[in-house]
């Protein structure tokens, strides 16, 4: 697993085999970042269910100003720290070893808002709709923010977000969503 574009292009991301994670495949990530490239420069990102930090690191490599990485798996957050230290991007990153609900409460309490949110939860959990509701109700998104979701068979509710694009890659889907105005 490598950084596919930007100033870190070609660098190896450690952690492909962390138990309980399912890193986004390079070809899916490449397509995803081609779609969102105009949103990345100077953005503040949230990589929720971060795993190796693959998506947030890619965003930093492509010009994001800051990325918050959240994962409740201690091994995963240790690997994210190793990756960002190796890439010397610590000044652009914050890592949280927390449950996603606790992290979202923290961001609300500290008035942290995002331009891009990457959601790649365990497919069986079906939590994307709950997270959409929390992002909307807690006002955690900046104007014109996008949420990038990777999922399998979850039915995504469009009460709070409109679909900008959905792409299918085998059994998984990547959806780009924009908060309703």
Description:
The protein has about 180 residues and is of the alpha/beta class. It is built from 5 helices and 7 strands. It has a single domain (about 25-180), classed as Vaccinia Virus protein VP39 (Rossmann fold), CATH 3.40.50. A 7-stranded mixed β-sheet has the order 3-2-1-4-5-7-6.
Features:
181 residues, alpha/beta, Rossmann fold, 5 helices, 7 strands, 27% strand
User: How many E strands?
Assistant: 7
Shape type? globular
Distance between the termini: 37 Å
CATH architecture: 3-Layer(aba) Sandwich
- What topology, given as strand order, has the largest sheet? 3-2-1-4-5-7-6
The radius of gyration over CA amounts to 15 Å
Q: State the name of the first-level CATH class.
A: Alpha Beta
Number of domains: 1
Question: Concise description?
Answer:
The protein has 181 residues and is an alpha/beta fold. Helix content is 31%, strand content 27%. It has a single domain, classed as Rossmann fold, CATH 3.40.50.
Topology:
Layout: H1 26-40, E1 44-48, H2 54-61, E2 66-70, H3 74-86, E3 93-96, H4 100-109, E4 114-119, H5 128-137, E5 141-151, E6 161-169, E7 172-179
